[in-house]
Every structure is written in structure tokens, then in C-alpha cells.
Amino acid sequence: MIYEQGDSYVDKEEYDLHTKIKHKVKLLNTEGFEHANVAIYLYKSKNSKEKIENIKAITYNNVGGNLIKSHLLEKDIYTEDYNENTTLVKFTLPNIKEGSVITYSYEVISPFMFKYHGWDFQSDIPKLYSEYKASIPANWLYHTKLVGQEKLDVAESEIKKECLVMRNGATADCGNSTFAMKDIPAFIEEDYMTTKSNYLARIEYELETFRGMDGSIKHYTKTWKSVDKELKSEKEIGKQIRRSVDLEDLLTADIINETDALKKTKAIYQYMQEQYTWNGDYKIFKDVSIKDLIETRSGNVSSINILLHNILREADIDVKPVLLSTRNNGFPTVIYPVISDFNYLIVQATIGDNTYFLDATDKFLTFGEIPFRCLNERGRVIDFKAGSEWLILLQNTQPQPCTSQS
């Protein structure tokens, strides 16, 4: 990558978030041709969506000492529905050869100020220069997070007075920031490494608070105390966790009458492994139903492990659900709650002085083991009474309490 730049700002007329992006890449050999395939992901909700404008792409070739330019045609730009919340726009630079230089630029227009555009400084190819500019009105307060081991070569900020004028005449100042890195090495994945998004150098934004011109305040980033309260009443997780189950409808008399707590817990765990099948779905905040699971004998991660949790609770075992982010999903944010970071749920069972992690989705796991996919540094133990807390996850060991950022 020779050069890339991003520039995000709020439009003065429509108050949408605009991000202009430019890239310049030299294709040294055929292995680099894949970088001429461009994919742009646009977020959409039920009522609104991001859109893209001003796509321009040119391939430059040196032919007999002459610089020949090949322009991307509009008919070669394709749009498709990637999933329910994402639209994919893609194109391929034309007439690429070894030694070609390609440039492409576009502008993303977003109505979603809660999703301020971040920036990836690092990728799987080396970059000579990567720059990102952000202009944020003062009434929008974001957490800004720099991820990765690379250091910024440029980190500048200034206040621009009255950068935004509302229709009622009210004005807002803007914080204008410029971040840049030079000579950025390619990121190389290693064996047994968690997802590369945990390590790639990048800037991320998380909306904390919006202050209206009328003095109103809306908080977006919450405390764990408020998140615990919301989870307790949340229909997919909280209500399912609180549901009672009839042990006599599910378990044999031998298991119900077992007096040794550890033996009973192991028997219930084995019952869940044998009787229910994971459908491969990682959903934890959607389509969670222990009733449907009992009827169909198949369900997602949350349904299976919440049923395990509820059966153990009814059997007088001390249990709590644990929210995780799997290895390929990235580390969960620690300094403030980001519920969307989590994509997995397991069970913590405490018997005497010992604590066990349980996951009934895998029929071949021994008691007290969790899958390798779940070993991603931390888990959040949900306790509706005492409050949730972080734990360090280690395979085949006791969980370690995390004393900070609780």
C-alpha cells in the first residue's frame, strides 16, 4: 500500500456522517492481484441505511514508456445483500498486470452517528502511509480506542469553532483529529493466535453520550450495573435464565435423587450432552428459547447452556451464566460494556471450594472443559444479585478473578 486516507465529518446540511476514503496500491506480482478486488460493507437497519457515492477507480500501467489509464465502469460495480444488517458493494479494478498501480476512492454516507467510522492502519500487506482525519461535534462524546502494538507517527487535535450550525441557529464546536502511521509492517498470523482483529493497529469509536442543544442528555455507553439490570429483564437472556424447569419431566429418578452434588452435576451435564444437539448457531441475544429446545432437541449455544444452567439451579447447584467472545470474534471491550462484543454463553458451577466451566454444546468434552474456541482471555460472569464481574479464562484450571474494570 503506497498511500491511504480517510476523512470523516458531519454534514452541515443533513447532519449525516460522511467518510471519504482513498487508496493507492502497487501490485508487485500476481499474488497481489487479490488487492484489486474491493469489497465495501454498508450497515443497514429496518428504517435506515448507509449509502455509497462517488466511486472512482483507475488502473495505471506503463506500456512502452506511456502511462495508460483504465477506468472502472459503473456497470462493473455490484451490490448485494450480505446479511440482514449488511449490504455489500464490490468491484474489481480493470486491466491489472504485474507492476500496475491502482487507485480507488469513494464516500460513505451514514445516518448512524452511534457508529462513527473507525480506521484500520494495518492489514496483511505493508503500508507506507495511512492517515485518518475525524471531525466530531462537541455534543457527541465518544470513547476513542487505539488497538494494536504499532505507534502513531501523527496524533494531532484542534478545536474548530462553530463547525456545525443547527436549523434553529444553535452552533457546536468540533474536535478535529488527525492520526497517521508510516512504514506499517504487514500483519502476520501465527499458529493458535486468536482473531487478527485483536492485534491489528486501528482506531475505534464507541458513542458514550449525546447532548442535545436543548440541554437533554442521552447516554449510550452504560455501566455494568445498568447492563446487569437490563439483562435481567431482557427477553432472550434474562427471562430465559429465570425460567423454571420441572426436573421430573427431564431427568431420571437416579439423577434427581443423587445426594452428592458433584456426581449430580456431572450426571446432568452428561444428560445435556446426550439429549440435545447444538445447531452450530452462536446467537446469544436472538432466537433463544429453552421451550423450543426441549421440544426439538436442537438449539443454539444460549438455549442449550441456559437449559443446563436452569436444570442445575433447580437441582440446588450454585450456577451463573458467563458471557464470552470466541477466539474468532475478538477480545471483549473491558473499560466499558459493549454487549455486542459477546457471542457465546457458558455456565459456571461452584461446588464446595471448586468452580467449573461447563459447555454442553460439544458431546465429546469432558466435564469441566470448555472448547478451544472459547479461550479468549476473559469472560463476564453475570450475577443479577451481587453484580457481574470479569474472569480470566484458562483451560483445565480454576478461573482467575479479574480485579480491575469490574
From TrEMBL:
InterPro entries, sorted: DUF3857 (IPR024618), Transglutaminase-like (IPR002931)
Database matches in Pfam families: DUF3857, Transglut_core
Top-level taxon in the UniProt lineage: Bacteria
Domain Transglutaminase-like: 256-328
Domain DUF3857 as annotated: residue spans: 22-149
Protein name: Uncharacterized protein
